[in-house]
Design goal:
The protein folds into two domains: 46 residues; 210 residues, MetI-like fold (Orthogonal Bundle), CATH 1.10.3720. It is 77% helix and 0% strand. It has 15 helices and no strands. Helix 10 runs antiparallel to helix 11. It is flat and about 75 Å long. The relative contact order is 0.11.
Length: 308
């Protein structure tokens, strides 16, 4: 009897191995669900792939042009240069106005970032924590400056700067950029402050912390991810802005990098595509490296601070 049972068990194991490890065949419904799930995964990846191509192709074309000569750009439209050269980068770095405009861009960007954060933090905290009449309407009105294009502000800002004697100054650019960025910063910070548990501030208030200590030791440390995000956005806006620089500055020594890129075409009207591409890459690469350094801290800070 035992020999018979052993033989039957051996036969069942052999049959299981020959039929694919003992797994029962998929039914029609299960097979349909599996195929449907894989098709949906492929369809989800298609927009992501298109987005990556849409983003990377212009960058790769610009990178390829920066290593070409002016003649090769017109003679060979291919992506890879036949005779790579760093001449365009040397030409950009040797320009008399490059270092001055780079310094101006850094100073204006840092000043705009600092002033935007200094104004938006207390304003957003007041909207998020205090209850007063017209709070929601006033918060909506703060977005009105963002709805006006910069071209529509050129003449009014120019006349105000002339009347105040503030034309051709870096501080004027910092104040103007801050006024354009504070509405967006306030809206972002209001949503973030509302996610911070009130119980933390109430406990600190019981321990004797006033408003400024609660902001310093509780609110600001928990809102570091949002502050970093706003700081990066403010610096980028000040770094890339061109139209207001064209109006509010009159001397090359007070202008920023976008205007220097604008003057690279020259009076002959023939574009220097390799130098312009190298100029663009030299101004973009710092942002890429900075984002690669802070991206993980922003994501980790948001996920750790979002749990109540």
């Amino acid at each position: 009897m035992m020999a018979t049972d052993s033989a039957q068990a051996t036969a069942r194991r052999a049959t299981g191995r020959s039929s694919g490890g003992g797994r029962p065949p998929l039914s029609g419904r299960a097979r349909y669900d599996l195929v449907r799930r894989r098709v949906l995964q492929v369809l989800a990846w298609i927009p992501l792939l298109l987005l990556v191509l849409w983003t990377m192709i212009p960058f790769l074309v610009t990178l390829g042009i920066s290593f070409k000569s002016r003649g090769e750009v017109f003679a060979d439209p291919g992506l890879l240069p036949n005779d790579p050269t760093l001449g365009a980068y040397g030409e950009v770095l040797a320009r008399p106005g490059f270092r001055a405009t780079l310094l101006n861009s850094v100073l204006v960007g840092l000043g705009t970032t600092a002033l935007t954060l200094a104004i938006s933090m207390p304003a957003a905290y007041a909207f998020a924590r205090f209850r007063f009449a017209g709070r929601h309407l006033l918060l909506l009105f703060t977005l009105l400056p963002r709805l006006v294009p910069s071209l529509g502000l050129m003449v009014p800002l120019y006349r105000i700067a002339v009347a105040l004697g503030a034309l051709d100054r870096r501080l004027t650019l910092i104040v103007v950029y801050t006024g354009m960025l504070v509405p967006l910063a306030v809206w972002l910070l209001v949503g973030f402050y509302q996610r911070i548990p009130r119980e933390l501030e109430e406990a600190a208030n019981v321990d004797g912390c006033n408003l400024f200590k609660r902001m310093r030791y509780i609110v600001i440390p928990l809102s570091v991810p949002a502050l970093i995000t706003i700081g990066v956005l403010a610096f980028r806006e000040a770094w890339n802005e061109f139209t207001l620089v064209l109006v509010l500055t009159t001397t090359p020594g007070k202008r920023t990098l976008p205007y220097e890129l604008f003057t690279m075409q020259g009076i002959e009207g023939i574009p220097n595509f390799p130098a312009e591409a190298a100029f663009a890459l030299l101004t973009v690469l710092p942002f890429i490296f900075v984002y690669m350094r802070i991206e993980r801290y922003v994501v980790s800070g948001i996920t750790s601070g979002a749990v109540k």
